[in-house]
Amino acid sequence: MEQSTEEKILLAAEEVFLREGYDGARMQQIADRAGINKALLHYYFRSKDKLFQTIFEQKFRTFFPKVEGLIRQDIPFLQKIYLFVDAYLKILSENPYVPHFIIHGIHKPEGKAFLKQIPPTLAAGFVGGYYAAQARGEVREVQPVQLLVSVMSMCVFPFLAKPIIREVTAMDEEAFQAFIQARAEEVKRYLERILLP
């Protein structure tokens, strides 16, 4: 199926924003990458801010609905975290530059508004699930918010730090992808050591 002009623009803009950063990206570069003229680009998106905001919204919304559904499942807490890790790494693998977009975007005024769209039940469900499991003796005593941040960090950091990881370890792209493939099981092993009594 042929891409619409808007889809071509969004793909081109994402690529240019990621390569050049928000400040370095130019509308002419995006138009050239999309194979259209600048006037047509401005017809679809009046400004660079509007274009970035559209991409940011799309990327932001890929994260939270899927993982919130996992948190609400009635399954053992450790199993819930395993599913969370699998889903989170899958989303990141399919959208490896989403963390860059979110980190850049949340520092803009419109990005701060999107933070309010994060379901409040996400952290509350995680923390509540932890305390219930801890009361049943299934997991050790830890600080649940610290645990949530650690789980997210272990998943996100390889994508944010990809150039550093590749440089320090001399990984080529194929080796880095293999590293990411193995990441879920590695994170789960850490979590077992942290949580199992």
Total number of strands: 0
- What fraction of residues sit in β-strands? under 5%
Helix content: over 70%
Domains, number? 2
Provide the succession of SSEs.
HHHHHHHHHHH
The CATH topology of the largest domain? Tetracycline Repressor, domain 2
Distance between the termini: 53 Å
| CATH homology group of the largest domain | Tetracycline Repressor, domain 2
Gyration radius, to the nearest Å? 20 Å
Q: Give the biggest beta sheet.
A: none
Mean pLDDT: 86
GO molecular function, one term: DNA binding
Domain HTH tetR-type: 3-63
Protein name: Transcriptional regulator, TetR family
Keywords: DNA-binding
Give a short overview.
With 197 residues, the protein is mostly helical. Helix content is 79%, strand content 0%. 19% of the residues are buried.
What brief labels describe this structure?
197 residues; mainly alpha; Arc Repressor Mutant, subunit A; Tetracycline Repressor, domain 2; 2 domains; 79% helix
Topology:
Elements (H helix, E strand, L loop, with lengths): L4 H20 L2 H8 L3 H7 L3 H24 L5 H18 L3 H8 L3 H7 L5 H15 L8 H17 L1 H8 L3 H23 L2
